[in-house]
Amino acid sequence: MLKTPIHLIEQVVFSSGDSRFKEYSIRDADWQDQNGLVLYLSIKGRNWLIINSEWIPSPINDPNPFVRWIDQERIVLVQRRSGRFERNIFVLNLTGEIIASFYAGDAIEDIAVGPEGFWLSYYYGGFRSGLPSEKLVLFGWDGLPIFKYETDLPDKPDILEILALVKGKNSAIWLVPLLKPLVEIVPESKSITIHNEPDLLNKGTFSVSIRGDFVYFVLEDTKWCYACRIGEESAQPVGKIKGVSRGLAPTESYNFISRSNTWGEVKLYRIDNKEEYFLA
Questions:
Q1: What's the total number of domains in the chain?
Q2: What does the pLDDT read at residue 280?
Q3: Is residue 1 domain-resident?
Q4: H/E stretch holding 206
């Protein structure tokens, strides 16, 4: 149980006042403390990148890709679908020029970027062949797989679907699989740790943040955010995070980023938890 109060702090980083257009649809967004905000918007049939207030026409014709920071000089756009081995990973410089591209499999469900490369999860991987059948793959920025869940883990649980994906410390990745609350994978050692609590994670979350020995997660149906020590059963409600939210890496000062087309906003959320810094 948590012994001290926890506070949810929000900050708006994009709103209608920042847009050139009255009507727009926010497709995806990413934030890094060092690099700022990157957005992908669709406006009247055209797609735009916004990199720290700079509007750039999208170099790909896709209304709904993932967008993520790689580092201070690069971002990546990821097309979820790819037919006939067409390239669907596009590395861009900050002017929007494609400087590298490659194929990384069809039916991409989520992406997490770290210094070790980028992780992709695939939906319905058990019913597909090739890369998607691995369900989770770590790629280097040369487009080559470094780690594959099904191939490289000798002792592992069967995963039907990965609901949430978020970076951990160093090269570690955390995931919330369907029917399994919380899993940590370290690719170098090919090790896996399964946590069966908190069970509330199984109620449906696509948004999770790991800090120290705490897990924070947002339930999809209610939008309530909860806090819990990893491995403990009870989870404490913290507040609501509306819109489509996603957990950020532990290197960031904010826990979650959320986008909402209802309000046309992108918000950052930080959880103030004193126990996070004084671990029992």
A1: 1
A2: 40
A3: no
A4: strand 205-211
